[in-house]
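quick q for whoever's on today - can somebody do inverse folding on this one?? i tried earlier but teh output was garbage lol. tokens:
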């Protein structure tokens, strides 16, 4: 698919190429009472110089948040900071980011990528959590191991984002059936909430949102122990409905020069988006 077409139709899902453009969008969302997590696009970096450059770009996000009094925190991808070739370097990068966030009373969410990096990501998270508690991790409900990981991390008092998962994984380690993934999501979410952990309930699935409502009500979960999280540009109607119920909503706002790989991954994981693009292309030609 031509890059120009992808850029045009992906613009609703990405806050531009620059930090300044992201700040403007965050201000707009904040004005509606919506929180944000900022993500500097990029992943699978394979050398020291690129990982260091990504770290420096990411560090600048905290100054932008502080200087503009934004209701925002930071999400990071470990492979962008070196995990694909040096776990210790990645640990040091993330530790410095979390330390800077602590100085500014902010927070860092360590994203979970595909399965080759799951164990290393959890190891890094556990090491950093020993020193700082302003750091969270992501678990993916389509991985069969995630419930066991929840039990382990609950013992630490982990701060979670729970999502379905987007990477293509072998059937031996992941659920493929839609309802099986949903069932595991609910099982994990209940375990997290009942243990008293903070959870970012990350989904656009109305079934899962309704199940979350049920668990919150049945277990009398305080509103300061969870939030709902969604992607920029996806189901803003549902986002507003959740917020109108009085729940905290946070939007994942990606930005940066690596917008094309991110956009193509989103298109591959969601054929419906690709279908809308094709329909729009033909409508322009008529």
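ok took a stab at it. sequence:
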């Amino acid at each position: 698919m031509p890059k120009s077409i992808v850029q045009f139709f992906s613009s609703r899902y990405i806050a531009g190429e620059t930090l300044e453009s992201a700040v403007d969008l965050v201000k707009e969302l904040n004005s509606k009472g919506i929180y944000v997590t900022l993500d500097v696009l990029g992943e699978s970096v394979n050398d020291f110089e690129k990982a260091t450059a990504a770290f420096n770009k990411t560090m600048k996000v905290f100054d932008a948040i502080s200087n503009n009094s934004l209701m925002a925190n930071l999400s990071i991808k470990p492979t962008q900071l070196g995990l694909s070739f040096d776990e210790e370097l990645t640990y040091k990068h993330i530790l410095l980011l979390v330390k800077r966030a602590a100085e500014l009373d902010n927070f860092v969410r360590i994203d979970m990528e595909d399965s080759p990096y799951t164990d290393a990501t959890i190891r890094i998270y556990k090491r950093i959590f020993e020193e700082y508690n302003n750091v969270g991790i992501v678990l993916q409900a389509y991985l069969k191991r995630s419930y066991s990981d929840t039990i382990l991390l609950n013992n630490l008092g982990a701060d979670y984002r729970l999502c379905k998962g987007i990477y293509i994984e072998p059937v031996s380690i992941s659920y493929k059936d839609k309802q099986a993934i949903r069932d595991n999501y609910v099982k994990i979410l209940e375990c997290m909430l009942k243990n008293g952990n903070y959870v970012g309930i990350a989904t656009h699935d109305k079934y899962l949102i309704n199940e979350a409502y049920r668990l919150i009500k049945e277990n009398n979960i305080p509103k300061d122990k969870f939030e709902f999280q969604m992607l920029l540009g996806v189901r803003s109607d549902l986002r507003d409905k959740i917020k109108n119920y009085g729940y905290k909503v946070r939007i994942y706002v990606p930005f940066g020069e690596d917008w094309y790989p991110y956009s193509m991954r989103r298109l591959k994981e969601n054929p419906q988006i690709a279908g809308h693009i094709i329909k729009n292309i033909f409508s322009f030609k008529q």
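fwiw The mean pLDDT is 92. also The domain at 18-256 is CATH 3.20.20.220 (TIM Barrel). so keep that in mind when u check it
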